[in-house]
From TrEMBL:
Belongs to the class-I aminoacyl-tRNA synthetase family. InterPro entries: Leu-tRNA-synth_Ia_arc/euk, Rossmann-like_a/b/a_fold. This is Myosin motor domain-containing protein. Gene3D superfamilies: HUPs. One of its GO terms (molecular function) is ATP binding. GO terms for biological process: leucyl-tRNA aminoacylation. Signal peptide: none annotated.
């Protein structure tokens, strides 16, 4: 993203477009070095898909465990 190329989003615009969790994931994925990082919109979208996929899997797993009579300890 770059202001000079016209594809810059403010933090508020990014949160409105992707939600706070998506922006957090994209920023965390962009790196932790001292160099300027290139944050791509695809990172936010992919991060959200992974996050919501994981949440869906957890929900399905817990539902199946409780329907089958618990955790089996």
């Amino acid at each position: 993203m770059s202001k000079s190329t016209g594809n810059f989003l403010t933090l508020a615009e990014a949160i409105e477009k992707y939600c706070a969790d998506g922006v957090r994931l994209a920023l965390a994925d962009a790196g932790d070095s001292l160099d300027d990082e290139n944050v791509k919109e695809e990172m936010a979208e992919a991060g959200l898909l992974r996050l919501y996929g994981l949440l869906d899997w957890i929900g399905q797993t817990l539902k199946a465990m409780f329907e089958d009579g618990g955790f089996g300890y």
